[in-house]
Design goal:
The protein is of the alpha+beta class. The chain is 41% helix and 19% strand. The strands form two sheets. A six-stranded mixed β-sheet has the order 1-2-6-3-5-4, sandwiched between helices. A hairpin with a 4-residue loop joins strand 4 and strand 5 (97-104). The longest helix has 20 residues, at 126-145. The protein starts with a helix and ends with a strand.
Length: 425
């Protein structure tokens, strides 16, 4: 396998695309793929929970729901799309809100009609706001308040961040912020963020670029641009001392969550830093699982991952202890594994193994037209859509020395916030 590794890299198929920008600022990207009868339409808005006010959180997620509640000329978003043989969904994160449709390519115009109408103007009403308020608040209660460990990210974010808006999760700080949302607040948030100059439209599939650009001009060209202001998000100060917090709750197992501040998605050190999580937690072959679950039998499960945030994010180790295992020795065992990656250089075969896994994941993720559309949009948001064809090379270029250097820089006790989540019974 190792002798074929570099050959495989050289044979990676480049994703071809063309790009055009409308006069109102909307960026339009097209990837032609005639191997499918379908087309995927992905509309990424450069707005997430980091753009909210601390006293009005959860608005970006609320809009994920409101955008399906009807627009100026379309009463119900899903009906025309289903009649055209399409399906759709959306998601919100701390950084972006993303809407997408997949449909037969001959019905592409239906998706443009739907997306442009709700970008132009939602059907704002007290009734639609009240309906979606109830949906979001119920989701908040079901998944975050009444779910075991459901408030972990509320607790962990507010422990790790003191200043940056990442200190609250996408769902918001508390349900009251959504329950008390006024129609004018919602309208102002919409016209501040859901504008063509804050959006990236990608079409992938059995389409022609000229046709897509023509449709984009026809349906989106006359939508007014929004204010093109610079973000002024408060930067998170350097963490200089360890932080801890203990929570008691009705949960089946004691758990531990350790978070370290981590490079932003656009930093050159991101790739070496990201490999740390894969070395520590690459499935059942990862170091943490092998040592702490399989050999020492301290945890029922343990994982390491990073948030991949546009602004500096978090590297997180989380684990649930086996019954009867005390927290102190379990945490010490985690620290021992972290010390190894800081003090010992990663062996070349282990580094190549995680690189191979990342290469496979990225390659398979781009087999579907929808994934290609999403990835092109996100790469463009990062600064250049062509990054989609260079990311694998950036991972493969990481050296063992760089991984060790980033581990030393990130995994410092003074950079760590630890949440002990303990069973109350």
């Amino acid at each position: 396998m190792s002798t074929c590794y570099h050959i495989a890299v050289l044979c990676i198929r480049m994703i071809q695309f063309v790009k055009h920008q409308l006069s109102n600022g909307l960026r339009v990207i097209v990837h032609e793929d005639n191997s499918t009868p379908l087309a995927a339409v992905n509309l990424l808005y450069d707005v997430g929970s980091r753009d909210e006010s601390p006293d009005q959180t959860g608005f970006a997620h609320l809009f994920e729901h409101l955008m399906f509640g009807g627009s100026k000329n379309i009463e119900v978003f899903d009906v025309p799309l289903q009649m055209a043989g399409g399906e759709n969904n959306a998601f919100t994160s701390t950084d972006i809100t993303n809407y997408y449709e997949t449909l037969p390519s001959q019905n592409l115009e239906t998706a443009f009609w739907l997306e442009s109408d709700r970008m132009n103007e939602l059907a704002f009403s007290e009734q639609s706001l009240e309906v979606q308020r109830k949906v979001v608040v119920e989701e908040f209660k079901e998944h975050y308040i009444n779910q075991p460990y459901g408030d972990v990210w509320h607790k962990l974010r507010e422990l790790a961040y003191t200043t940056h808006p990442y200190r609250w999760p996408t769902i918001g700080i508390k349900p009251e912020h959504i329950e008390q949302a006024q129609l004018d607040d919602v309208r102002n948030f919409f016209f501040s963020h859901y504008r063509p100059n804050h959006a990236i439209l990608v079409v992938s599939g059995n389409v022609k670029a000229d046709e897509v650009f023509h449709l984009a001009e026809e349906y989106f060209g006359d939508i007014p641009a929004g204010v093109n202001g610079q973000r002024r998000l408060p930067a998170e100060p350097l963490q200089t001392e360890a932080r801890t917090s203990t929570v008691y709750a009705d949960v089946p197992l004691n758990a531990i969550y350790k978070a370290w501040h981590f490079p932003a998605r656009t930093e050159s050190s991101y790739y070496a830093s990201d490999l740390i999580s894969d070395i520590l937690s690459g499935g059942k072959s990862g170091r943490l699982y092998q040592s702490l679950v399989k050999e020492q039998k301290l945890f029922s499960e343990i994982n390491c991952y990073q948030t991949g945030s546009l602004d500096p994010g978090l590297l997180v180790v989380e684990g649930k202890l086996l019954p009867g295992i005390a927290m102190e020795p379990a945490e010490q065992a985690i620290e021992k594994e972290l010390e190894k990656i800081k003090s010992q250089q990663v062996e070349e075969h282990e580094l190549n193994k995680v690189k191979n896994r990342i290469e496979s994941q990225m390659t398979f993720s781009e087999a579907e037209i929808l994934n290609k559309a999403m990835n092109l949009a996100f790469a463009e948001l990062l600064g250049d859509a062509s990054l989609i064809n260079r990311e694998i090379t950036k991972y493969l270029a990481v050296t063992a020395d760089e991984v060790k250097e980033q581990a030393i820089r990130i995994l410092k006790p003074t950079n760590c916030s630890t949440l002990y989540y303990l069973a109350s019974h």
